[in-house]
Amino acid sequence: MIKTAIQLKAKIRNISGSDSKVAMTMIRVFFMERFLERVSISAYKNQFVLKGGMLVSSLIGLNSRATMDIDATVQALPLTQEEIEKIVNEIGGIPLEDNVSFEIKSIETIMDEFDYPGVRVHMEGKLDNLKQPIKIDISTDDVITPRAVEYGYQLMFEDRDIELQSYNIETLLAEKLQTILSRGLANTRARDFYDVYEITHKKSFERETLKTAFLATCEKRDTVFTSEQMQTGLEDIGSDMEMRERWNQFKKNNYYVEDLSFDEVMDSVQNLVVSFL
In the record, what terms sit under GO molecular function (predicted)? Predict the structure, then answer.
């Protein structure tokens, strides 16, 4: 276990070489994982459900996907700033032998694009003189079809897993597809398309469960799509020059995308949707 900032920096230097972007990502992930390990042994381990970018990065590999924050949904807990502050402080204060500490800097109420409330916690992780801001976005009442799963999260710097509750792959994909279809040409998040491509190429999943999860997600978000609307919407996205430019910019800003083309990711999205029409 890494216990000093010197150890951490040396380990990262051995992995990332002189790539400062990779090094910064790894430092951020290190502190987020330190928090998640505390979640895994806390009184809230069965109510704190990992989702979003941190889960995707773990599923497909850090070399294939960077993430900026922790996304989670909490089950059977009130989603107030006061309650979340209490829970996060309690989790962050759990003593481990890593010498890492956490301090909440601010908390705010947020709304997603479907007007569902959430809480964003801005924290600072500290190891010796090394400080790193991290962010946790917490929601509640998310529809998980059929249910959350126990997930063995592989730590980045240690050859072991920690046990967390997480979205299943089908619900993860269902939310991505619903977002792609509902936003259409207004979607500025090229990452959604990339995630669908990577997950479907690297992980197995049940298509019938995905269909059920997709319909449940659409119902929760008050969106209904006919088969024709889905096919036409995806064709419009695939042929739109502005969407292609957003993809090219995403490739330029994210080294791990490499030479993956927009046509390839759109084929993946379209094939997935067609499979359960």
Answer: transferase activity
Burial grade of 122 (CB within 10 A; 0-12, 13-18, 19 or more): middle
User: Global pTM?
Assistant: 0.93
Write the pLDDT tens digit of every residue in 29-86: 999 999 999 999 999 999 999 999 999 999 998 776 878 899 999 998 888 999 999 9
Where would I find the beta strands (DSSP E) of the chain?
Answer: 48-51, 70-74, 100-111, 117-127, 130-140, 149-154, 161-166
Quick one: which of 165, 174, 167, 231 has its CA closest to 207? Answer: 174
Calpha distance 25→253 (Å, rounded): 13
Residue 3's alpha-carbon distances to 12, 21, 79, in angstroms, are 14, 23, 33
Q: Identify whether the C-beta of residue 43 lies closer than 8 Å to the C-beta of residue 101.
A: no
Q: State how far the Cα of 95 lies from the Cα of 92, in Å rounded to an integer.
A: 8
CA distance 141 to 79: 10
Q: What is the pLDDT of residues 110-135, one digit of tens each?
A: 976 656 789 999 999 999 999 999 99
Per the listing, tokens 């910064």 go with 24
Sign, CA torsion 161/164/165/167: negative
Q: Do the strands 117-127 and 161-166 form a parallel or antiparallel pair, or are they unpaired?
A: unpaired
The continuous run of DSSP H or E covering 90 comes out as helix 81-92
